[in-house]
Amino acid sequence: MDVSNPSKFSIEFFPPRTQAGEAKLDTVHAELCKLNPDFFSVTYGAGGSTKAGTAQIVLRYHAAGSVCAPHLSFGGADEEEIRQLLQSYIDAGIRRLVALRGDMPSGVGASVQHHYANELVEFIRRETGDHFHIDVACYPEIHPESKSYASDVDFFKRKVDAGANSAITQYFYNPDAYFRFADYCGDAGITIPIVPGIMPIGNYANLARFSANCGAEIPRWLDKRLQGFGDDVESLRSFGIDVVSELCEDLLAGGAPGLHFYSMNLSQSVSQIWTNLDLGKRNQNELP
Ligand code: FAD
């Protein structure tokens, strides 16, 4: 893999907590491999619950031939623990990471020292040079803890200045939030690719709760339409596929450099959106 070439279409998993969940993810992974994404990423529970699971899934799928990027945070770990984890990824031939501050489970956050993501990027570069392509997170609708739009972009720029190669956004359903953010970042001197994070719509209650926590806005019209489906999950999912496919179409038409799908360890919506967009073909022919 050319680590200087940002990948364009990627899919995220979280590490399952049970053997049954892992078996299910194996099926989902096999299904999504057919789409030939540029890479899969696997989230990291900074609080510790799924730390080992991240490395385990990444190393297993990497050995099976998938390009995989583990997410990584300091969490409560010391430098030696992170150093060893990085070395294990280098030894396995992993070339890409997603570096984050991470969110600690409630009750844990106050007891550990927070390391902002720019500090982690600095540490990875100091320890491993240019071995890894480093992705970082950014927030078109602004991180919920941020004091202002400007300060959030300033902190994003610190991650870029520390050595991030590309960024993946928090999900959003309003393309203008992305385009305005990308323009603002460009004016602030941020030139790395900013890849939209895409959340398929599968379950209204989960989406509403998750969005409230992470500061992603569900536009009022969309919220009302989704609520209207009640228990009709199939119709909601089908409507969600149309809405998200159109969002992705608008984003790509407007110049977004790729898409990163939050799969939630499910294959159906991602596969359908991918097919609607004919992403396999675009990946080879259309984007630079
Ligand atoms: P940072 O960039 O460190 O920013 C955190 C907050 O602090 C922001 O408000 C920022 O403006 C502010 N800030 C940044 N630097 C400084 C500074 N030096 N001084 C003062 N304030 C500062 N969470 C997980 O637990 N595991 C995952 O695997 C995971 N994967 C994710 C993947 C993506 C693509 C995205 C968008 C999010 C992911 N998250 C994950 C959630 C993420 O960890 C949270 O949003 C977290 O609250 C912030 O992480 P960050 O890396 O953006 O933090």
Shape label: globular
Q: Which CATH class applies here?
A: Alpha Beta
Helix content: 40-55%
Q: So, CATH architecture?
A: Alpha-Beta Barrel
Order of helices and strands: EHEHEHEHEHEHEHHHEHH
User: How many strands, which pairing sense, and closed or not: the largest β-sheet?
Assistant: 8 strands, parallel, barrel
What ligands are attached or bound here?
flavin-adenine dinucleotide
Which consecutive residue ranges, at least 5 long each, have pLDDT under 50? 1-7
Beta percentage is 5-15%
Please tag this protein with its features:
288 residues; alpha/beta; TIM Barrel; eight-stranded parallel β-barrel; 11 helices; globular; binds flavin-adenine dinucleotide
Q: What does this molecule look like?
A:
The chain is of the alpha/beta class. It is globular, with a radius of gyration of 18 Å. The protein is built from eleven helices and eight strands. The relative contact order is 0.14. Strand 3, helix 3 and strand 4 form a beta-alpha-beta unit. The protein has a single domain, classed as TIM Barrel (Alpha-Beta Barrel), CATH 3.20.20.220. 48% of the residues lie in helices and 14% in strands. Helix 3 packs across helix 4. An eight-stranded parallel beta barrel has the order 1-2-3-4-5-6-7-8, surrounded by four helices. It binds flavin-adenine dinucleotide.
Provide a short characterization of the protein structure.
The protein has 288 residues and is α/β, with parallel strands linked by helices. The chain has helices at residues 19-33, 51-63, 79-92, 117-128, 149-161, 175-187, 204-214, 220-228, 233-253, 268-277, 279-285, and strands spanning 9-13, 39-42, 68-72, 96-99, 133-138, 166-171, 194-198, 259-262. The chain is globular.
